[in-house]
Amino acid sequence: MKEQARFWRHPAVPETDLLKARYVTHRFTRHAHDGYAIGLIVEGVEEFDYSGTLHRAAAGEVVLVNPDTAHTGQAGVPGGWSYRMLYPSIDLLAGIAAELGGPYGTPHFPRQVVRDDHVAALLARAHRAAERGDALAASTLSRTLFARLLTRHAAPRPPSAPPTGGRKAVREAIDLLHDSLVDPPTLEELAGAVGARPFPLLRAFKEATGLPPHAYLTSLRVRRARSLLLAGMPPARVAAEVGFTDQAHLNRHFKRVVGVPPAAYQRAAGTYKTGDSTST
């Protein structure tokens, strides 16, 4: 069965993206979002590794992925899966949680797959309204959906462990990678810059982020590429700006993380200019 995907910005709720897709052979590489990933499986089964635990989400179930948590995504049955996804920012959900009188801080979803028919129906309605471009209905239903998810399925975020020398080195390494998208250091150089040895840093980095440094760097590059594409920069120039070898390199990694190619993402955002790219 043919794969298809559409990625676009929410017509009325800020800091929220949407995806409607059917995938059969497509596989999402291990990656993390800077916000939430909330979706409804419409048909089939999606299988995904989340922090070392394999989950399966079937039709009618809701998927809840927390920010900055490494996960994958692939078909769980031969026919693949179809779903509708929303990607709200941390600030948006934290703001709604505060309006509801919830505890201060980043909302957290302890379960990644839930069966909640009422929430599932609400998500489908909110997503379809956004797909139609009905701003009032989409904004009302989306905010109602997020509020219902927070009251029914969120919990206080688990407390962070006290900082150690290893975690301090990882934090410094992350900061360095943020500043070195185009010319990143080797593992040895990265370890030397934060006062650690290569293999202990590699273990601590993967334990803290779920990703080795090179995969984390790719995730950062894709994240930055999305911002530049939304600003209207041509994909070929974006590739160079974020450190990919060429546009084909950007296309490959972008689709593995976002689910659509850069040019399709840019067209959906309305910032694509004719002649920018021949990719679809």
Helix content bin: 40-55%
Shape: globular
The CATH topology name of the largest domain reads Jelly Rolls
Distance between the termini: 19 Å
What series of H and E elements makes up the topology? EEEEEEEEHEHHHHHHHHH
Query: From the 3D coordinates, which CATH architecture of the largest domain would you assign?
Result: Sandwich
* CATH top level class name of the largest domain: Mainly Beta
CATH homology group of the largest domain: Regulatory protein AraC
Which residue ranges are poorly predicted, with pLDDT under 50 across at least 5 consecutive positions? Answer: 274-280
Classify the beta-strand content into a percent band.
Answer: 15-25%
Mean pLDDT: 92
Write down how many β-strands occur, each being a DSSP E stretch of 2 or more residues: 9
Number of helices: 10
Estimated structural class: alpha+beta
Taken together, the total number of domains comes to 2
| Radius of gyration using CA atoms only | 19 Å
Q: Tell me about the biggest sheet?
A: 9 strands, antiparallel
Q: How does this structure look, described?
A:
By secondary structure, the protein is of the alpha+beta class. The chain folds into two domains: 4-153, Sandwich (Jelly Rolls); 165-269, Arc Repressor Mutant, subunit A (Orthogonal Bundle). The chain is 44% helix and 20% strand. It is built from ten helices and nine strands. Strands 1, 2, 3, 4, 5, 6, 7, 8 and 9 form a nine-stranded antiparallel sheet that branches.
